Amino acid sequence: MNNSFGRLFTITSFGESHGSCIGTIIDGCPAGLPVSQEDIQEEVDKRKPTSPIATTRAEEEKVEVLSGIFNGHTTGAPICLLIWNRDVDSSEYERTRSLLRPGHADYTAFMKYGGFNDFRGGGRFSGRITATFIMGGAIARKLLNLIEIEVLAHTVEIGGVRAELKGVDEIRKNVEHNPLKCADPRAAEEMLKVIEQARAEGDSTGGIIEGMALNVPAGIGEPVFDTMEGDMAKALYAIPAVKGVEFGSGFSAARKRGSENNDPFIIRDGKIVTATNNAGGILGGISNGMPIVVRVAVKPTPSIARNQQTVNIEKMESASLEVKGRHDACIVPRAVPAVEAMIAVTLCDFAMRARLIPEVIK
Ligand SMILES: Cc1cc2nc3c(=O)[nH]c(=O)nc-3n(C[C@H](O)[C@H](O)[C@H](O)COP(=O)(O)O)c2cc1C
């Protein structure tokens, strides 16, 4: 079993990019949570393609609620959420099915599934599958709202252009008004130019997303194997094209002295907090009450409109491939809601393990 995540709050993702549908089953959600189709749709709409960086798959991703929600509340039964695949054009995938796309999962999937996997549109390896994570994340966020935990994510770097670090209010205010989901409008303009340039050259570009969870109480996490970092990183690595995850000062901690990297403890408003947050809100795999801060490296879109060297796996001969069809020159902005979702799902599961969420919501 490898398509489910979580212990007490679980999501199971199903469907392929060009199959009949994609969907999520959410199990473990308490009864009585007020939620509507529109609430879930709002989250899914955050991954809508935004011009000028986006794919031309013009599909509306309309969420259908099949079970587990009745009269505007969760029932306690598994929640099944579904999106039909309607605007599907698999012709290009049929034409190039034996040509392994460099950077994509075609070769590894072939080796694992012996060629039986649905390769059309990337199948299970498509970025479209993140819509199933976002549907699970929509329910998780609602539950986290009950205990005032807020989850945010924003683009901090694309193609080497970095956003100036902003306060949380600016992130909340700017992220959804910006096609790049970047809280720094000036950096966003530069990022757009870099993406345009890459696209004009038949190429693509990557970047970094920062995720945050605020108001997480101290003491959540299950060492040693289900640490907060361990589970959250696992959830984030499920997002296709994620190639790095770091918490707090992350890899830069390796270049710091202890005196620089330690976060001094202080008392503020009668509570123990830390003066800095190099730990990214986690010590010993357990939340320390500071914001959880995680950064995710997203690689450049593998499918590029350039001639690339590859192999024809059926003929076992060298070949060249220029990927046609509908691909974003930069995946980063569309991965931002998926990062939020996976942080929310992880935290919701931990919150339930810590018994912070009641069995019935009244
Ligand atoms: C939101 C999103 C959209 C994506 N769109 C594309 C795409 O249009 N073309 C493509 O080649 N890869 C796309 N990807 C990335 C591939 O799915 C991914 O690189 C591939 O499955 C290989 O997995 P890996 O990069 O995690 O190793 C997308 C990823 C995400 C998160």
Task: Summarize this entry quickly.
This protein is of the alpha+beta class. Helix content is 27%, strand content 23%.
Task: Assign the structural class, choosing from mainly alpha, mainly beta, alpha/beta, alpha+beta, or little secondary structure.
Answer: alpha+beta
Uncertain residue segments: none
Count of separate DSSP helical elements: 9
Order of helices and strands: EEEHEEEEHHHEEHHEHEHEEEEEEEH
Percentage of residues assigned to helices: 25-40%
Total E-strand runs: 18
| CA-atom Rg in angstroms | 21 Å
What summary fits the major beta sheet?
5 strands, antiparallel
Strand content: 15-25%
Spatial strand order of the main sheet: 1-2-3-7-4
Shape: globular
Mean pLDDT: 94
Bound molecules: flavin mononucleotide
Outline the structure in words:
The protein is 27% helix and 23% strand. It has 362 residues and is of the alpha+beta class. The strands form six sheets. It has a five-stranded antiparallel beta sheet, with helices on one face. A five-stranded antiparallel beta sheet has the order 9-8-10-16-11. Strands 5-6 form a two-stranded antiparallel sheet. Strand 8 and strand 9 form a beta hairpin. Helix 1 packs across helix 4, helix 4 crosses helix 9 and helix 7 runs antiparallel to helix 9. The model has no long low-confidence stretch (mean pLDDT 94). The chain binds flavin mononucleotide. The site of flavin mononucleotide has 21 residues, from helix 9.
